[in-house]
Design a protein that fits this description.
Bound molecules: beta-D-mannopyranose
Number of domains: 1
CATH architecture: 5 Propeller
Mean pLDDT: 96
Order of helices and strands: EEEEEHEEEEEEEEEEEEEHEEEH
CATH topology: Tachylectin-2, Chain A
Largest sheet: 5 strands, antiparallel
Shape: globular
Strand content: over 45%
Number of helices: 3
CATH superfamily: Glycosyl hydrolase domain, family 43
Amino acid sequence: MRKIYSKKRPVRRFAGNPIITADMMPFSCRGVFNSAAVKHEDRYVMILRCEGYNFYNFFCLAESPNGYDSWKIGDIIPMPEDPEYVKYARVQYDPRITKIDDTYYFTFCCHAHEARMGLMSSKDMRSFKWEGFISGIGFRNTVLFPEKINGLYTALERPNAVGEIWTTQSPDLHFWGNQNRLMNNNDCTFGWGKIGPCGTPIKTPKGWLIIFHAVSVVCDYEYLYHAGVVLTELDHPHKVIRVGDECILTPEMPYENFGHTPNVVFASSHIVEPDGSIKIYYGGSDRYQCVADSSVDELLEIALER
Ligand code: BMA
């Protein structure tokens, strides 16, 4: 007989969702969603993805003492103005953030006629340095692992044309190679439309725990964005141990079902606390910033057996 699991969901939405909305911003804005979050010293800092009524996207800082509420909106992050950047980045969106040693690396999708990944770094989560593009066109959702693997910086990336997740490696964060496919959409029961990586992979004794977004397409036209988990080998991060059969989050709340794009939960980052609990930050319906609670153990249970 199949094992029966407790009714308690492995990921539980914060009752105060959405935590950040456009009307909290001190400037004109139609949505705040898919933001990147990190704990810096004793503050929770988010790089908010803000979208104006002209659909131009920009990044703005926010911080909170607890990661759930009392958000104080900070400065807009200045983006490079040189023509080479602007040529490929009419807009920029979907930030991800990873701390490696004492530096925060913030990757994001730059988009003009096609998607291309950009990289910025920061030591203090207040000022940011443009490091350059880290892919050619045709890539989005690049997210760095929190440490070098076999002596090389390692990242997850998603080639735009296909619904797949790959790993890529670099000696210096500028030159990338040694690409390997980690999974494609057929490996996931709820992501036959497309898949892509979410936040920083989590190192556990059992392997890299990776949260990904997955899209199912219903009635041939309606896209539903979910989140799922996959576990991969610590020394060979593209080698899959198992993909969880159950999605961990699926659009079920009004702020996920009705917004700009209906039926979207888009997890873009998470913070793992010292006790193993996890705050998962996600966008609802391309309009609202939300958070949910989980833990490494609960996500491992999905990855390994459910
Ligand atoms: C993806 C990205 C996300 C967005 C999602 C749903 O392709 O563009 O920014 O949240 O689609 O529209």
